[in-house]
User: What shape does this take?
Amino acid sequence: MLVLGNLQTLSEVRNLRCSDDILQKIPNLKQLGISYDVSPTVEWSEYQLEALVNLHQLETLKLLFKYSSHASESVNPPKLAFPENLKRLTLAGCGIPWSSMTVVGALPNLEVLKLRKNACKGSEWEPVEEQFCQLKHLLLEEVDLVQWGANEAHFPRLQHLIIRSCYKLKEIPSCIGEIPTLEMIEMVDCHPSAVTCAEQIHEEQESMGNEDLKVRIDLRRYFKNKFYSKIFH
Assistant: This one.
């Protein structure tokens, strides 16, 4: 068996079957990007995505699921598992339930999490304490989140929060501002009510002497290209 022991990066791979014989050939991979074509007849068991947990050196993983014109988003989501060494994870289009975020939150070294374009399905995300212990950067983009029950204990080391094009989310928990490491909240094309929450978080923290937190607001697309941008220092 040919082993590519020096290979550390694979990107823009399509429909990779993560069988043992494939993964054993790339044991030292550190960066991996895969896109999957989702059809109405897709059988996720063929791709063995749970076997990604065996890439023990992997630090960066991007998984993108692209729906064909004939596939509906009601297709059952794949089952995912991740190696403990993972530091940066991007998910897009996989449609897993928010409850599955406990699998992600348990990753002990995860620092960057990007959830894009229906990466998760459902209206409510209730994070669990003692998870996301090392997470510094969180992006929520084009997800159908309505209620986010987060507090400072759920993301104890978060530095940068970006919420982009999450039109159904109308409220950000005020206790997010109590995360001692938080440096920046970015609100891009979000519901005005959520933006107001971000402004109130900034005002509250400023009144308590926290001058480190910055809030950036950009609503140009939400207001159909009318310029609306603010940065609070």
